[in-house]
Structure formats: structure tokens, C-alpha cells
Amino acid sequence: MKRLLFFPGHRIIAYEWHRGRFRNVQAFEPDEAGRTAFRAWLDASPRTPVQLLLDVIEEEFHVDRVPHVLGRDRAALLKRTAQKHFRSTEFRYVTVQGRETRGRRDDRLLIAGLTNPEILKVWLGLIDTARVPLKGVYSLPLIGERLLPQLGAARVPRALVVSQQVPSTLRQSYYERGRLRFSRLVPGRYDDAQGYVDFLRRELDQTLHFLETQRFRRRDDPIDVYVLAGDDTHEALREGLASTDTVTCHLVPLSRLAPRLGIRGGLPGTFADAIYAQVLLRQPRPANHYGLPRLRRHFFVQRARVGLRWATVALVLAAVGLALGTGLRARAYMRATQQARARASEFRALYQQRLSQLSEFQYRAVDVKNAVDLLHRLADAASANPGSMMARIGNVLNGHPHIVLDDFTWQVSGDPHLKVDVDQRRPLASGTPGLVHGIDTSGKIYRYALLQGEVVDFGGSYRRAIQRFDAFVADLRGSGQFGHVEAVEAPFDLKPDSGVSGDSGVDAPGDKAQRARFAVLVRTGGSDGRG
Amino acid sequence: MAAAEIDLRRLLGPGLAAAVALALLLALWVFGGRWVAGKAAQYHQAHAALAAAARQYRNASDDQAVYQQYAAEFRNMNRRGWIGGGSRLSWIESLQHINRELKLPTLRYDLGRRRPTAVPGAELDASRIQLLRTPMHLTIGALHEGDVVNLLHRLSEAGQGLMSTQRCSIRRADDAGRIRFDPDVANLDVDCSLNWFTLELQPQGGSS
Fold first, then answer.
1. Domain check: are A301 and A392 in the same one?
2. Of B25, B47, B175, which has the smallest distance from its Cβ to A340's Cβ?
3. Which of A258, A274, A331, B87 is the most buried (most CB within 10 A)?
């Protein structure tokens, strides 16, 4: 429910309003009984804010232009301008209505003020005493700007709205493109509907003339006049008001306007006060015109109380939500912890079970694996011995009865090109990388045999001895058992760069005294595929 | 009583209520947050314990697979004295035992010092696995070359470690090349260089 006070200058009228429906409309006279009743009305619902709507003769409207400035300067300039226009009252209101289109493009201002605020003093005092929140004090002509769209006059260049809120006065408000420029309230007395029409026409002419003299409009500028008429005067106005070339009259019946504005249950009276009241009450946060902060302090307190209550509710709800969220999170963690512990226990049990199966080994698995792998490699390499080489050479020797070996030296080496120490007649010791103490770790190992002996029974014929040696070497090579066969020393070295000596005399010792010694190096193993 | 004071008194109740609600919210925020943080810490702890237990079990499973793959060979190598074996006295006794059967006219041995040896290309944790080498030299007087091959083979099978022959030199004992058929006289003079390898393994839980 909302509460509204309408003050037309003498008595005050109170409305209670709920979703477009006016009820419990009361008028309070400015006497002791009226004030008492008004106080009772206020006390009936002390926490409900009231809005005060003014429609008084003592309200004036001025227009002015000021330079366009921003920020603090703007606020100060507006305040100073308002003070300049209304020095004797603190009930003043200033609003910027746009900018000039020419020159330095000044701001266009409307300044409104109550020239005699004393008329409100009694009622405002009662409101303050009752500690009833005063939401704001509003000017009816300014509220009328919000009525224009409903009249279809929101964008009309010049519109004059004529209305009657109480029987004794006539309100005429002039708007340019939806913004109030001027308004006047005139008292009037008439006896019947025709008298009202005459009164209205007379005042209308005066107002139009005033607008011309004040240069709000030129004589030939068209203007739309909207007359808000009650049912009792509607017929007379329809007959008595006529449009001219520049003045277009629109008769707006209140009974049709009220539903368009959302008023339910009909107007509470025959005048337009409820129309403006409806426009004001429908606005959630209407701009306050004359409500001074000291007059509105109970409203501020009440807003603060409401705000604090809402804040309390919000905080409590947040606390409940936080508690719930915290509880849920903690519960989720606890469940997950429980599950993790249970799973860990299962794994530990399985581990113990597995451990019991592994108790046979006192060594780590990785050490066992490394040991086996290493010993495998060592064992493969260590399997070599002279026996295999002896057997292969023996097979070849069987076909050469005149070849006699007297020295057999076998050696393991990682060097594929092992040299022979000719003087010592033995393979050189090898320091080939990858061969550790006779055991190759890279997979390449060579077995060498240095065969030393002599050719026998060659009858002193060097040629025969050489032929027999060559045949032996050829058989070694042709056997396919060896990867490399090298004649290190032949029985008789007949090469041109070698010296030769002998005894071919009759008394020579014969072939028994002559030795046909030789040395042959053979190799197996490595990558030649002959192990 | 001043108007401002009255206004403040009217705000006192809702203000106190809002303050209490705010305090409640903050208390819930702080203490609830700590409580949840504690529960979260317990959860993370339990999760870490679960991960550790799962890892331990998985490692044990892996170990079991390794053991299953290498157990037989490991036992065989252990039995042959390649791992942990290597008593010099046992080796000498084995040599004497072999020669009682071969009856070699000459069999002299020379054992060097046993020392750890590195194996190039094998990345081993020296604190857990150590390959030990003992250099050996045999001087043999043999009736024929078969004695040498037989001796080396039997030494390798004696179960005292891994034997590797590095070099052997066989020379006729008689410069004239005559062969004697006397079992107490050698026909061949043989010199062999060998390496005797054993592997030392650190048991599980042993100091590394």
C-alpha cells in the first residue's frame, strides 16, 4: 500500500493506494479537528511513507540559461541559479531541460519554487511529529510531464494541458516537446457547466496571450490544448471549445484516461487530482522536487531500517547458505577420506599378500634382474676356450702330414686386427675398449690362434716346402672355419727385399738340417659369424 | 532529546541485528573455512596414503613378475657359485680334486688378489651389485692338448664362480718333437691366463 497527500492550497486530501485502486480518501481541513483527524490518519500507519503532491498558486516556474559546465561547477551553478530566482524560500527545484542549439549552446533550465512555504508548515509539522516517513514533495505540473505520453503529447512541440484538481482552481501547464516550461494556477468561480466553459475559454485566451508575450510561442505557432474534463462538464466543453488554425483543442474525458493510466475501480472524484496521483504513485522512484532533507529524515531512517533489515536477512541467508555449503563440502571430504582410507587398507592387505609370495627372495627384484642380465653376458663371453679352435685346426692338419705344429697360442681379444709380435712370435696384448679382462661386454669378441711349426720331409726342396705351406694355408682359408687367415712368416722368405743364404754343397747337411719354419695367425668370432 | 539521537535509536535495533548477522557470517566463514580446510587436509593425507599404498602394491606386482621371469636363472647362477660364491680354499680343493682324476704331471696355480671391477656399458648401482675379479695363472704340464681343454671345462663347471679363459699358450716340451708315452712326463707345456668372476649382491633392506 502507498499513501499520498494532495495539497491544493487550503485543505489536504489523503489517499490510500494499492495496485491502481484508490481507497479511503479523506480530506482534512486546516483547523483543530482537521489536524487531529490528520494526526490520527498518520498514526494509523506510521511506517508507511507518504508522498506529498502540491498544486498551489504559490508555486512559480522560471526559465533561464546558464553556460554548460560539468562536475562540481555544474551543481554549484545550478544551486546558485535557483537561489537567484527564489531567494526567500528553500523550497526550490531546478532541472536542466536540454541545451540551446545556437550560440554557446547554453543549458536550458527550469527553476520551480514555492514562494510561500508557510502554507505547508502545519501539515509538514504534523508529519514530522508523527515520525511518518516523507518520501518526497512533488510539483503537480512537473509530474504532468509523465502524463503527456498518455495524452499522446510526449513529442508535441507545444502542448498546453488544462485540468482542474479542485473546483475552485484551474491549472494550465505549458510543455515543449514533453518538458514543462510554464504553469499557472488560477482561482475561479462559476455556477454551472456553461460558466466553467466560459471561465476556461477566458483563462485559455489569457494563457495563450501570455505565452506569446513571454516568447514561448509566436502567434502563428500551432499549439495543442489538452483539456482534462470530468463527465459533468464534458458535454458543455465539447460544444464550447472549438479549434482554430493554430490552436487544436483535445477534450480528454477523465473516465477514459483513468483506465489507460491503470486506475482500477474508477476515479475517486470528478476532478483530475487522482489522475496526477496515479501518475506519481506508479513511479517506483520519482524525482523529489521540494522535499528538503530535514523533512525527509524519517524517510531516510526508515529506508535505512528497511535496508538494514534486508541486509540482515541477506546476511542470515548467506550464513545459512555458507553453513550448508561448508557442511556439504566437509561431508564430501569426509566421505572421500573414508573411501581413500578403505582403499588404502585394501591395497595394504594385497601388498602383504603379495609380499608373502615374494618372501623367498632376499634381494630386490631389480638387482636380481641386473645380476642375471650381467652374468648372462659374461657367461656368453666366458664360454670361449681353446678347445674349439684346436678342433678346427686339427681337422685341417689331418690333410697335411708334413706340417708339424710345435707352438699354439690362443687369445681372446676385442680387436678385429690384432698384430703379431714377430720377435716374440705371439699375438700382441690388446687393450681394446669393451674388452674387460677377456670378457667382451659389447657383444664383439675375437679368438685368435698363432700357429707356429715347420714343414718337414721336403727333401731340401724349397719349392716343395713352400708349396706344402701354401697348400696348408689355402686349406685353412678354404675350410670356412676362420674369418681371417694370415701367413705371418713363410718357411723361406724369397721376396726381393729379403736376404737369402744357404748351403747347396755336396757336403751340405741335407734337408734334415734345414728348418722350414712358419707362423700363421687365424681368427674366429666377432661379426664374421664364425665362432 | 535531539532528533538525531532519536533517529539513531531507531536504527539501533536493525543495526545490531545486521551486526550480529554479519558476525555470524564472518564466524561461519572463518571457523567453517578452517573446519573444511582440516577435512580437506585429512582427505589429501588419506589420498596420498592411498597413492603410496597403490604404488607399493604395484611395485610388488612388478617385482613378482620380475622374480617369476628371472628366478630359475638366478637360482641356477647361485648354485653355480656365480653369485656370492668364491671361496679360494674351495677353488683350490676343486682344482686338486680335478687333477686327482686327470693326473696331470704338472699343475701349478697362481691366484691374484680379488678386486671389484667395473663393467663398461653396464649401469649398475655399485652400492648394491659388485662384480669381483680374481686373476689366475695356470702352468700345466699336459700329456696331450685334450688335458688342457678338459681341465678348463671342469674348472668352469666346478661351481666356484664364472671362469673366463683369456689366453693359453701350448708348446711342445721336446724341441725335437718327440712324444713320450710316460704318464708322468709332460709332452706339452701350457700357460693359461684366466679370470675368475663372482657377483656380490646387497640383500633387501641392507645398507647401501
1. no
2. B47
3. A274
Q: For B88-201, CATH number? A: 3.30.70
All residues of chain B having their beta carbon less than 8 Å from the beta carbon of residue A376 are 73
> Can you state the angle between helices A231-240 and A193-213, rounded to 10 degrees?
60
Considering CB atoms only, which of A305, A358, A409 is closest to B14?
A: A305
The reply to whether A231 and A310 lie within a common domain is: no
How many domains does chain A contain in total? 3
Taking only the tens of pLDDT, chain A with its 531 residues reads 999 999 998 899 999 999 899 988 899 999 999 999 999 999 999 989 999 999 999 999 999 999 999 888 899 999 999 999 999 999 999 999 999 888 889 999 999 999 999 999 999 999 999 999 999 999 999 999 999 999 999 999 999 999 999 988 999 999 999 999 999 999 988 888 889 999 999 999 999 999 999 889 888 899 999 999 888 888 888 888 888 889 999 999 999 999 999 999 888 888 999 999 999 999 989 999 998 999 999 999 989 999 999 999 999 999 999 999 999 999 999 999 999 999 999 999 998 887 777 666 678 878 888 888 888 888 877 777 888 889 999 999 999 999 998 889 888 877 778 777 766 655 555 444 334 454 555 557 788 899 989 898 888 788 888 999 999 999 999 998 888 999 888 887 666 665 556 555 555 555 555 678 899 999 987 644 444
Residue A209: which domain range? 148-257
Residues of B in contact with A436 (CB under 8 A): 117-120
Q: Residue B15 in 3-state DSSP?
A: helix
Same domain, A389 and A329: no
Put simply, the answer to whether B149 touches A385 (Cβ < 8 Å) is: yes
- Say whether both A519 and A411 belong to one domain: yes
pTM above 0.95, yes or no: no
Contacts of A127 in chain B (CB under 8 A): none
Interface test with A, best of B22, B63, B147, B151 (most A CBs within 10 A): B63
Q: For residue B29, give the DSSP letter.
A: I
Are A140 and A13 spatial neighbours (Cβ–Cβ below 8 Å)? Answer: no
Rounded Cα distance, B55 and A344, in Å:
10
Angle of helix A462-478 relative to helix A386-397, nearest 10 degrees, comes to 130
Which of the 8 DSSP states describes residue A526?
G
